[in-house]
Amino acid sequence: MTPTGTNSRLLLIALGAAALFTVESWALGPYSWMYGYGAGLETLPTHLALLHDGRLFSPWAPFVGSGVDRFAFWGNADPLNLETVFVALLPPWLANGLHRFVQYFIAIFFTAKLCEEQLALERRPAVLAGVLYACFSYFTFGEMLALPALPLFLWLMQRIRATKRGWWLPLVAGLGFSTLTTFTHSVPYFALFAALWSAIVLRDVSWRAAANLALLVVGLTLGDFPQLLAALATASLSHREGFPPERVDWSLDGLLYRQLRFDYFNQDPLAKFVAWDLPLPLLTVGAILAALARTPAGRPRLGLAYLRVYAVYLLLSQRWLFVGAQNVIGEWLPWVRGIYMGRFFDVPASLLIACQLALLVSLARTKLETARWPQRLITVAVAVLVLFMLLRPKIYLFYPIGVDGWGQMNYQVQSLDRLMRAETEPFRVASVLPLQPAYAYAQGLEAADGWANLYPKAYRQYWLHVLAPLLRNVPRTKEIFDPESGRPQDHYIFLGADLAHPGYGLLPGEDPARAVVEGFDVDQRFDLKLLGLHNVKYLLSELPLKSRSLNLVHAPADPPRVAQSRDWATGLKSPPSRAHGSNLWRKSSNALSNLVEANRRKALGKDLFIYRLSTYLPRFRFVEELRPAPSGPSLLASLVTLSAEELARSALAEQADVGDGDNLRFVVGQINSKQVHSDKITLAVNCSADAFLVVGITWNPHWRAEIDGKATSLIRVNHVQMGLKIPAGSTHVRLRYVAIWQ
Asked: Are 169 and 29 in a shared domain?
């Protein structure tokens, strides 16, 4: 056991290092930096949205993609997670900053403990391993505590084995640990990795070890089970069901995983080389040297420990193995092909890289014990690597996030607050990129667009028809949303990729300098009729728009003078601003002035263009007729050809859902009152004869309907909505969302 005093010193080191790695996220108060991808544009807004209307623990989230099962939201924003508490109790900047601080602290502290107790490293190289884990990670809010807590999981696993307690301890520990994870970052990734670590690194294949790990994983699975179960129930209906399998070819990247999962490394070419391209060859050379090295007598078997960790790293790098297994399983469960298998590697990759580098440094210093200058050279090289990985993100992201970004002000747009207060009926909005959808649902607005890694296949088909004009006029956007071969970037339910970026947003012959004054033509980009059909009442935009179907509701007092592009994935300004000056002093001075000016801009508040769609249709409406269509594709084709007036009077359904001989013409009933909650809807209606009610909520088989207390069937209409026939004289309609575990 490590002395308490030594633990206290390690605690202080981890706290100090965590503060340095995250200083930009908490030191500037409301102006603190918020990285967008996976955090400020995805997870944090989802949590903020759930704070509205008592939705904190609701399983139904209509603000993301017009209706996605809350527990099945693949990856981020698990409501049974500590992130929920951070957002509920703290302002966004502090929730983000404190959360990142905790992430880095846990990662550094428990990696050091893991290396000391399980890899027999001395204190200094063990601390180095913790710091290197932080270096090769760029933790953001969306990752929760799952990835930083991976060493905690391994440490906890071994500590539980060493106790004499009963079977309940690993079960309870796993259940408690589930509050740090979602199923996408725990089961089955943690289970497989922990099993490999136990068998290969710890060399413990006893029945007791297997039973303890199994109970720990069972507890973890039970804690994440509601989300896991909902995802499994939704998966066969999701957009992933029809995805082609990943390809394996005879190339380095075709056979092996090398890339870390962190988006930041993919943006910065230099950091990408250090974090993505360098580790595999460097660690392979290290494995060869470790195999050839002879460990001095009386010293820890560092070389053997290194080879064991490297074996796990190399095994998890085998892309062909995971993709091959996925394709075999996909023959029986087609939706499995839509899962990204790289997480089996990139969840533990940073930890494995850090442990191997620390072991390699320790092994080299042991072999060079009497060679002073080579030892100093190693120390300098390690210090340079740590300083680079500590400072590089802060320097590289200074302008993209610190100056060009909005931080917390992304979620405090006063014009959107006024819009919400002015409306009494439920409605949706959509955001035209480069404005990200998160700006809407972070303030409690329901959005037809957004980030959702698991959503109905029918909704994806519908959305592609919304984008059809853009895909025709700007063909390169098909590479993002609907490529001819391979997989789309599936989690983007976006209105295009940009407005002004040549090739991805700008229309042929369109002049951005003129359009930023007169408005960008969205009739040639989107089918606004289909947006209005799906209850979208307002379009939000950073840039002015023009269309026959749009009416300006609000414009910023200081409209943009230049059409600025932003990356559709990260939300970062493209190209980012740069420091100007003839020398380093002048550039630094100008950069500081730019930051002060950016903070002054943020203090004035963010504002947007808001347009009302003339094609908007209410969430709940009676129609005069129900038109049958022979199939889903033909139904979608008919929706495109019908006028807005015809869509208002009628609903379309597949012939198989309507049946033969049914009355397809109805009277228009009246809705007297409504109570709308995230998972329960009650309507008081008046129907003099048989009527048909369209419910503009994305179709999901887990909704149930009752008319005057009697169960009735829901029909899928307009490809993505629900409808039901209401007999004459009916007075009350009740819809309930019934989760699969209910």
From this structure: yes
Contact 702, 69 (CB under 8 A): yes
Kindly state whether residues 462 and 423 are assigned to the same domain.
yes
Q: Select from 367, 396, 425 the last residue of a domain.
A: 396
- Domain-embedded: residue 117: yes
Q: Which DSSP symbol is given to 39?
A: I
Domain interval for residue 497: 409-580+606-613
Say yes or no: 414 and 387 in one domain: no
Q: Are both 153 and 278 inside the same structural domain?
A: yes
451 φ, ψ (degrees, to nearest 5) = -105, 120
Read off the pLDDT of residues 576-635 as tens digits, 9 standing for 90 and up. 888 888 888 888 899 999 999 999 999 988 999 999 999 999 999 999 999 999 999 999
Specify the pTM: 0.92
Is pLDDT at 54 greater than 70 in this prediction?
no
Residue 706 — very low, low, confident or very high, per pLDDT cuts 50/70/90?
Answer: very high
Q: 94 with 221, same domain?
A: yes
- Spatial contact of 487 and 245, defined as CB atoms under 8 Å apart: no
Q: Of 127, 118, 89, 149, which Cα lies nearest the Cα of 6?
A: 127
Nearest Cα residue to 38 out of 573, 570, 635, 414? 570
Query: What six digits make up the tokens of 280?
Result: 């595999």
pLDDT tens-digit profile of 523-542? 999 999 999 999 999 999 99
In the three-class reduction of DSSP (H, G, I as helix; E, B as strand; rest coil), residue 138 is classed as: coil
Give the residue carrying structure tokens 């809407």: 440
609, two tokens = 């263009």
* Structure confidence by residue, pLDDT tens digits, 13-43: 999 999 999 999 999 999 999 988 777 887 8
Token couple for 103: 């992430």
The arithmetic mean of pLDDT across residues 40-51, rounded, is 81
* Contact by Cβ (8 Å): 431, 437: yes
Which residues in 60-195 belong to E strands, given as ranges? 60-61, 68-69
Same domain, 127 and 272: yes
Please report the pLDDT score of residue 609 as a whole number. Answer: 97
**Does some domain include residue 590?**
no
Examine residue 575 and say whether the peptide bond preceding it is cis (omega within 30 degrees of 0).
Answer: yes
Cα 89 to chain centroid distance, Å, stands at 22
CA-based nearest residue to 619, from 691, 701, 693, 692: 693
Return the pLDDT at 517: 94
Q: Are residues 218 and 351 in the same domain?
A: yes
Structure tokens at 256: 């092996």
CB atoms within 10 A of CB 248: 15
